[in-house]
Amino acid sequence: MNKVTVQRRYFRLFLIILLLQSGALMRGSLAADFSIMAPLAEHSLLLDIDAHDNRLIAVGERGHVLVSDNDGRDWRQVRVPTRATLTAIYMLDGRRAWAVGHDAVILRSIDGGDSWQRVFHEPDQERPLLDVWFADEHHGLAVGAYGYYLESSDGGRTWRERTIDEEDYHLNQLTADADGRLFIAGEAGHVYFSDDDGEHWESLPAPYRGSFFSILADDRHGLFIAGLRGHLYRSEDSGKSWTPLPARTSAMITDLLEYDRETTVIVGLDGAVIVHSFPDQLNYHFQPNRKGITAVAANSSGELFVVGEGGLARIHIPELTPGDRP
Amino acid sequence: MISGAGNLIFSHRVLIICLFILVTAAMAVSALQLKVDAGFTKLLPLEHEYMETFLRYRDSFGGANRVLIALVDRDGDIFNEAFFNNLRKVTDEVFFIPGVNRARVYSLFTPNVRFTEVVEDGIAGGNVIPDDFRPDSEGFDRVRNNILKSNYMGRLVANDFSGAIVSAQLQEINPNTGEKLDYRRVAEQLEEKIRDKYQGEDLAVHIIGFAKVIGDISAGTKRVIMFFGIAFLITALMVYIYTQSAWLTVIPLFCSLVAVVWQLGLLPLLGYGIDPMSILVPFLVFAIGVSHGLQMVSACRSRIYLGANAGEAARGSFQQLLVPGGIALISDTIGFITILFIEIRIIQEMAITAALGVAVIILTNLILLPVLLSFIHVDERYRNRLFRRAGRLRRFWIWLSYLTCRRKALICILVALALLLAGAWKAGAVKIGDLHQGVPELHQESRYNIDSRVISERFSIGVDVISVITETVKEGCIHYDVMKTIDDFHWHIRNIPGVQSVVSLPAVAKRINAGWNEGHPKWQVLSRNEQVLAQSVAYVDTGSGLLNADCSVMPVMVFTEDHRASTIERIVNAVKTYESGHGNKRVTFKLATGNVGVMAATNEAVADVQFTVLAYVFSAIILLCLLNFRSVTGMLCVVLPLGLVSILAYALMSLLEIGLKVSTLPVVALGVGIGVDYGIYIFNQLQWQMFQGKSLRQAYALTLQMTGNAVLFTGISLAIGVGTWIFSPLKFQADMGILLTFMFIVNMLGAIILLPALAAWLYRPNTNCETTG
Q1: CA-CA distance, A61 to B480, in Å (whole number)?
Q2: Cβ A5–B524 below 8 Å, yes or no?
Q3: Is B119's CB within 8 Å of A11's CB?
Q4: What tens digit of pLDDT does each residue of B468-481 get?
Q5: What's the CA gap between A67 and A113, in Å, rounded?
């Protein structure tokens, strides 16, 4: 097998060149382009999904936002003030939600996703935002490529940029545990940790030098982290030491979901749906169409919804019987 | 004047025959130069705006001349040793098919089929079937994983792992010899070397591609000649049954064949070849020739029956039929010429050659035929036979003549009206274009169309594509706004019902961009940065058909679920609306290439002229009938049944789901030509008998005995002959066969039943109908 190694570093060079330019290019288009209603939006590339109460929201390419207010039985596309590809959605409760994406766009909703307001937008940056998280209705964080790190203390109306690591690695996913400690899964084996609501960050030792795309802090089973080429690890000591888990896939693992107190659901790009139950019992359910899955969520009765290259789908996993969740 | 012409002709009989022999010999020599000329551009409406785009970009982007060979495991799983052995052998065979570009053969076993995967420090790749592959469960697992990592799922491997494809690109011109590739040979070799050898109990072989279509159509065309022969034999047999005389059978058939020889001889002189599509024309000329020939024979026979000798009979018939026959043939000619309005070369060729052929019939069947008839010997035995049969048939003719009684006529007219209403209702539903899946020239159940259906079901490969050509600035593919405009268009069209999938450069660029970013779908976007965008398109080569050398032209390939006219129209309208709303100076969306693009243009061309053609045909006929009969009544009696038949023909097409297209539109127009012959002969005789002072019913009874039986007979025998075409392997010939059979029969019924019924109500009857005559 021959290998081709590609240097990715010179992206940063472009970035610097671009930052030096005055950024006049896109300034003219400050007026928001609204997303276009499309009959096939449900089948377009969708990148993230979240659920709260009976509401589910999925986001994806071309500013597609899909909302269900009956636990995922019916979905409708809603019009939002961007056409940029949205990469992540976070629902604080049944009403407050934030979505982020390319062009460093941040959208905010206070009516459960029915209407959206564009609160941030920096296309000149040429850095996408990749995840968003809110501690409460005031304090929130958004992370993205090349160390992009934004925080808000007014519920997302305004945002401040900060640097948490001089090495500007991609910050791929952000999570918090039950005690409010924060974790970020990053590029090239970087994992960051903060126990003061993001004031200070420190690096955790990583078991792998490839990129991590998902991180989950589960109060019972500890910390899960997953990324490139099916790499999946669990730590019982807040990231000091890691145990590898066999994912039986060589494709990227993209998302982790704390399904219930016993169970974690792991999804990946070759249609992998893996169910982890305590203690380290893994069951594998590759979806027959093998379409890449980028995120997973469960509705209030425990039914699983995945999004990805095939759009939105409800999937049935035999050992997860909906309805008996705590 | 007519008797003068008769004197001139019949006093120089030998000279005339010699002249005909000379010309026929010359035409036969010329006809031998005739080449089969199945040109593709002839089928295109070249004047149509889409075709301008098509011709401009055909060479750059039309070169997707691929052959796909799908091997399907009958147990539904390719991961077994036998299947892999066969796949490797078939791949090896494909390299030796003539015309195959060996660098562009793709199969799991060719070294150009690779997978890539993202690893910690970049991208790694390898052959899907590794060098150290062993056909055991471990080896198969590895191959299965490599296929999943590769881009070839659905393209080279069935979506359910039940089959695999060997894809080969053909070179139209052999680069070493400069010779043009013989598609028929390619098709034959694919059958011999691959299907015949490998298809078996465990393996099914399916082959599609343009070369295979041409091969199958050519094989079908050979059978077309056979069907022509069958139709000829059936007609000959029927004519013999009718005339009861060998000479009277041979002479009209011979004269009609002379007309065909002339028509075929004229083709090379005009620079035309013969095309599978226009194979209809020689037969049509023959049919019209037989129809007029039988009129002449019938007229002649009536005179013999009444005691004349052959010479007198022939000359009398000539004088009687020259004018009505001439008028009928001239209206046919004019009718055919009007088809020239359809600006598709093949149809124009058909129009010119059919018009010439019919004009030739005036010479062969109105002059040569009576001259030849004057030489035959009539004996008493034959006359007796005629007497006996006339006695038998007379009662039938008398019975039919009561159709001219007003009450019976009214019933006929009411039935016709009911048919008209029902027909008009159905005819309104006639569709333009092709209504079924698969290659329209071949039957739906032909092997090719079954193969194509299997392949599109198991693989993610579409066979119906309309490419929208995006014209933009030089290096357009590295400008974000250009790429974004195309990408928005891509998504807009993808959402139109009937679109199965869309392939465009921005879509590919987005995937490549994700590839540069560890393969995460979150990076499937177009970068606003020129250099990054350039990096996303740099590895897409022009062979993909998605861009030209300086990426100023980028086709968007729209694969459609089918090629029904309604689907095509919906997509075409969506493109036009989008272009008018979103096109700008930098980006324009132009229709269209691809097989569906051609259909779109053809459908529009056919839709534009379908009423014009019929309007001109009918105007010509109305004018000539008025001139000939000098009576509006006469014109109506002939034209109204024709109108009804045209509407019923449309209704039939709608019932049988035959679309109005290049191969069927001329048939409807030509069918009117056949009907007008019947009408003019019958009405001419009827009018003449009434001038002699006969009542309408008596006149009609006599007309039936002289002219009507020939009409009845011609209609039936030609219908039976052409009816055999329904079994043709070529769909368009079968469609033509159905329509022509219908036209022959229904025109005949219209002339024999509806014409007198109309006459009964349009004329004031001068005697009581019920007296027997």
Answers
A1: 16
A2: no
A3: no
A4: 999 999 988 999 99
A5: 7
Contacts of B518 in chain A (CB under 8 A): 187, 211, 228, 252
Length of chain A, in residues? 326
pLDDT, tens digit, for every residue of B587-646? 999 888 888 888 888 888 888 888 888 888 888 889 888 988 888 988 999 999 999 999
For B195, the token pair is 């299907």
Nearest by CB: B529 against A18, A45, A102: A18
Closest CA to B609 of B348, B347, B341: B341
Whether residue A10 lies inside any domain: the answer is: yes
Among A56-70, B362-376, B661-675, the range scoring the smallest mean pLDDT is B661-675
Establish if B773 touches chain A: CB-CB under 8 angstroms.
no
Question: Which string of b and e fits B335-362 if b means at least 16 CB within 10 Å?
Answer: bbbbbbbbbbbbbbbbbbbbbbbbbbbb
Assess B524–A contact: CB distance below 8 Å, yes or no: yes
Assigned domain for A282 exists: yes
pTM for the full predicted model: 0.81
Cα B703 to Cα B773: distance, rounded to the nearest angstrom:
13
Residue A322 lies in a domain: no
Q: For an interface test with B, give the residue of A12, A17, A42, A45 to mutate (most B CBs within 10 A).
A: A45
CA distances from A229 to A249, B121, B268, B380, B512 (A): 7, 12, 69, 102, 18
CA A309/CA B84 separation, integer angstroms: 30
Contact A229 B130 (CB under 8 A): no
Alpha-carbon distances of B686 from B119, B629, B637, B731, rounded to whole Å? 93, 11, 11, 41
| Parent domain of A155 | 3-315
A18 chain-B contacts, CB cut-off 8 A:
529
Tell me how long chain B is: 773
- Report the domain count for chain A: 1
Which positions in chain A touch B520 (Cβ < 8 Å)? 172, 213, 252, 254, 294
Q: Residue A66 domain-assigned?
A: yes
Q: Residue A209 maps to which CATH number?
A: 2.130.10.10
Of B333, B337, B339, whose CA–CA distance to B363 is shortest? Answer: B333
Q: Identify which of A208, A289, A308 has the shortest CB distance to residue B521.
A: A308
B80 touches chain A (CB under 8 A): no
Residue given tokens 């991208």 in the structure block: B123
CA distance B139 to chain A (A): 15
Give me the interface pTM, i.e. the ipTM: 0.89
